[in-house]
Specification:
By secondary structure, the protein is α/β, with parallel strands linked by helices. The protein has one domain: Ribonuclease Z/Hydroxyacylglutathione hydrolase-like (Metallo-beta-lactamase, Chain A, 4-Layer Sandwich), CATH 3.60.15.10. Helix 8 runs antiparallel to helix 9. The termini are far apart. The structure holds zinc ion.
Length: 327
């Protein structure tokens, strides 16, 4: 499905089968000299067919089209290499670009497995997750050649000028694109209107949930009239959604604290198993393993935020992180 949203700005709906995100909104902006495509879909046949048929409808010539990836996740980057022409430049924020090249290395995923083991997942769950996790299964066809851009980098498309606006949180270097004149924000996964963007902790060196909430407040200061999100509903009330997302995480932080208060010490996996989730499964043991993996990451980012606030701490016991309340 293709729809014109504003002059020369089109959305192509790319379905993500069997994924709770349901679809990706890929945006095509017709430029004076070169066009820009924002985000692409998984490197899978269903996504490829939808994206290329949308581009065909728009009579988009990839020879005159560059690609911007809001962040490193494979539902955004996956098709970038397959649809690019020899003259297509593929841009991504430099922080995420540096991580993206690591995702092609098996050692990277071994380290991720070790990390999730230390967070409480079992070897059996990790083995099952490895083959089906979309984070690793639908990567782009090409490992190199991404052009890293800095905060403030500008795409001049003629009628629209789009500035890179770094919003770390969902990923370490997530970037939105902002048009000041018409007050348009392409929000990627920074703001999604009908689901909550997943926030995980990429390492223990930073408070990623804190970074995300700071990024929400930072973008709130921009004048924004149109927000074009990367999943599900294309547009919505930006400022209202920011308030909702901040409230959501404050509620979640209170829930995590409560779970920990009732125990001596818990792994992030155990904390996640006691949190409430809006997925269609009777109980934690029936969660699909990939959803458990995302839930553990989400629990971790909340635990780490509380740790950075000095409310909780962890001990490493038998290779597992055990979080506890500082009393
Ligand atoms: Zn994402």
């Amino acid at each position: 499905m293709v729809e014109e949203l504003l002059k020369d700005i089109f959305v192509i709906k790319v379905p993500l089968p069997n994924n709770p995100l349901k679809d990706l909104n890929s945006y095509f902006i017709k430029g004076a000299k070169r066009n820009l495509l924002i985000d692409t879909g998984f490197n899978s046949k269903a996504c490829y067919d939808a994206l290329t048929s949308g581009l065909d409808k728009l009579k988009a010539d990839m020879k005159n089209t560059d690609i911007f990836l809001t962040h490193l996740h494979s539902d955004h980057t996956g098709l970038s290499a397959s649809i690019a022409s020899d003259s297509t430049k593929i841009f991504i924020g430099e922080t995420d670009g540096d991580i993206l090249v690591n995702l092609f290395q098996p050692e990277y995923w071994n380290q991720v497995d070790e990390k999730y083991f230390s967070l409480g997942m079992s070897r059996e769950e990790l083995a099952e997750n490895e083959s089906i996790n979309p984070a690793s299964a639908f990567l782009p066809a090409k490992e190199k050649g991404y052009i890293g851009v800095k905060n403030g980098f500008e795409f001049d498309l003629g009628y629209y000028k789009l500035k890179c606006f770094e919003t770390p949180g969902h990923t370490p270097g997530h970037m939105c694109l902002y048009n000041e004149e018409h007050k348009i924000l392409f929000s990627g996964d920074h703001i999604i209107f009908d689901i909550t963007p997943n926030i995980t902790s990429w390492d223990f060196d930073k408070d990623y949930l804190g970074l995300y909430m700071d990024s929400l407040l930072k973008t709130k200061e921009l004048g924004i009239q149109f927000t074009f999100s990367a999943h599900r509903k294309v547009m919505g009330d930006y400022h209202g959604r920011v308030d909702e997302l901040i409230c959501h995480h404050e509620d979640r932080l209170a829930e995590v604290e409560k779970v920990l208060k009732n125990a001596k010490g818990l792994t992030p996996y155990e904390v996640a198993s006691q949190m409430t989730w809006s997925i269609r499964a009777k109980n934690w043991s029936e969660f699909p393993v990939t959803q458990k993996w995302f839930a553990v990451g989400e629990a971790l980012s909340h635990l780490e935020h509380l740790r950075y606030k000095g409310l909780v701490n962890y001990e490493l016991i038998n290779g597992r992180y055990i979080y506890y309340i500082i009393r």
